[in-house]
């Protein structure tokens, strides 16, 4: 058996083995738990800025009697 034929047969066997396992997903590839796309510190800072600016706007509007 020549080297190229041996190589081709090995490639076909690997392909056929892959065909029989098609559609099965190993358990390790699926994610477990909840993961945020941003860090907790960045998310906390964003909430701080949004809530702080809205509170600041409410206080500013209340002290200027709605004229600002």
Automatic annotation (TrEMBL):
InterPro entries: ER_stress-assoc
Keyword ATP-binding among UniProt keywords: no
Keyword line: Endoplasmic reticulum, Membrane, Transmembrane, Transmembrane helix
Principal cellular location given in the protein's record: endoplasmic reticulum
Pfam families for this protein: RAMP4
GO BP term, example: endoplasmic reticulum unfolded protein response
Signal sequence segment: none
Localization per record: Endoplasmic reticulum membrane
Membrane topology: Single-pass membrane protein
GO CC terms of this entry: endoplasmic reticulum membrane
Homology family: Belongs to the RAMP4 family.
Protein name: Stress-associated endoplasmic reticulum protein 2-like
């Amino acid at each position: 058996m020549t080297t190229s034929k041996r190589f081709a047969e090995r490639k076909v066997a690997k392909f056929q083995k892959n065909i029989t396992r098609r559609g099965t997903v190993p358990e390790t590839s699926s994610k477990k738990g909840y993961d945020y796309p941003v860090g907790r510190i960045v998310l906390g800072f964003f909430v701080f800025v949004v809530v702080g600016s809205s509170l600041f706007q409410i206080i500013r509007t209340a002290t200027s009697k709605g004229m600002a």
